Amino acid sequence: MDMHIPHALAKLTQPHADARRHERKDFLCSEQLSASYSTGQNAMWLRMHPTPRPSFNPSLLRDLSCYCRLLEDTGGHIDATESQPIEYVILASAVKGVFNFGGDLSLFMRLIDGRDQDALLDYGMACVDVLYRNHVAHGLRATTISLVQGECLGGGFEAALSSDVIIAERSSRFGFPEILFNLFPGMGAYAASKSGVARLTEALAEELKEEGVRVNAILPSIIDTPTNRADMPDADVAKWVSPAQLAGVVAFLLSSDAMPITGALIPVTGRV
């Protein structure tokens, strides 16, 4: 499948002949990240520099949450000498040779040794929260981009996958080290895989529309099946989606009434 990347995106990292068109205004700076707006690119840049290791530690996650709120509050325009649109949101690293290694393993060890399940859950939810905000472009009509220059592993790979576009140097390496220990990658990978389905649906719909092929995705919650009833005997199954209801949505999408619909992501959640 061809990736139709706008010409402007392909030149994001190249110096411009007219430096005045690429004035930069800093908006957020902490010990572990910096955010700035490039006027010539209409782009908000976030560069991570976590310490002591390039991983998602709690302090970096708090700073990322502040950055996400900053973007959401702009409404798509930012005051940089004058009101400027935010068309691109770029996630990058200021650590040479590393995008991000993912989870904070030293924190995991402390919390596991202390049997602090609540703190582990809080950390996982904080990771998923910033990943999801990037996945939905912070509520803006903007293209999100992960610029990967080096090692991109575990949760770092999950973060990169949450963007609309990944631009990577040839020397970059991607992977989920968890699989070496027979572990399934964490909650971020689950969210990233759902993001991948969404992006694939939209890309296929765009690519095939001239051929009259429609592509849509149905996003069900819990389906009322014998297996789910056995696994969750105390659940209120009346809130679940029945197979017949799900089939009804599929039948509608196949009907002539749904001819104008393509590239849609359709939640079928019942009352869950």
Concise summary:
It is built from eight helices and 13 strands.
Structure description:
The protein has 272 residues and is of the alpha/beta class. The chain folds into two domains: 7-201, 2-enoyl-CoA Hydratase, Chain A, domain 1, CATH 3.90.226.10; 216-268, no CATH class. The chain is built from eight helices and 13 strands. The protein has helices at 7-10, 58-74, 105-113, 117-135, 155-161, 187-208, 226-231, 243-254, and strands at residues 24-29, 33-38, 43-48, 77-80, 82-85, 88-93, 98-100, 143-148, 151-153, 165-168, 173-175, 217-220, 265-268. A six-stranded mixed β-sheet has the order 1-2-3-6-8-10, covered by helices on one side. It has a three-stranded parallel β-sheet with strand order 7-9-11, covered by helices on one side. Helix 2 packs parallel to helix 4, helix 4 (117-135) packs parallel to helix 6 (187-208) and helix 5 (155-161) runs parallel beside helix 6. The radius of gyration is 21 Å and the shape is globular.
Show the helix and strand layout.
Layout (H helix, E strand, L loop, with lengths): L6 H4 L13 E6 L3 E6 L4 E6 L9 H17 L2 E4 L1 E4 L2 E6 L4 E3 L4 H9 L3 H19 L7 E6 L2 E3 L1 H7 L3 E4 L4 E3 L11 H22 L8 E4 L5 H6 L11 H12 L10 E4 L4
Parallel strand pairs: 3-6, 6-8, 7-9, 8-10, 9-11, 12-13
Antiparallel strand pairs: 1-2, 2-3, 4-5
Helix pairs in contact: 2-4, 4-6, 5-6
